[in-house]
Design brief:
elongated; 4-stranded mixed β-sheet; TTHA1013/TTHA0281-like; alpha+beta
Length: 68
């Protein structure tokens, strides 16, 4: 089983990750810290059941370009 997190970068540079299929949410200041936080959050959520075999971090980037 693979679970997917939608990751957005905040205006202050930090990251927010939200699992699309389970109630798992975490945040961090750096990408490396986010990866560790996601692993910890997934382990905690699945502490009494089989853990997913993979976790996908999908970085969503929203950028507005002006045409003027």
């Amino acid at each position: 089983m693979e679970i997917v997190f939608s990751v957005t970068q905040e205006s202050d540079g930090g990251y927010v990750a939200e699992c699309l299929s389970h109630d798992i949410f975490t945040q961090s200041n750096t990408w490396e810290e986010l990866r560790a936080n996601v692993r910890e959050a997934v382990s905690a959520y699945f502490f009494d059941q089989p853990k997913p075999t993979a976790v996908r971090l999908h970085l969503v980037r929203d950028e507005l370009l002006t045409t003027a």
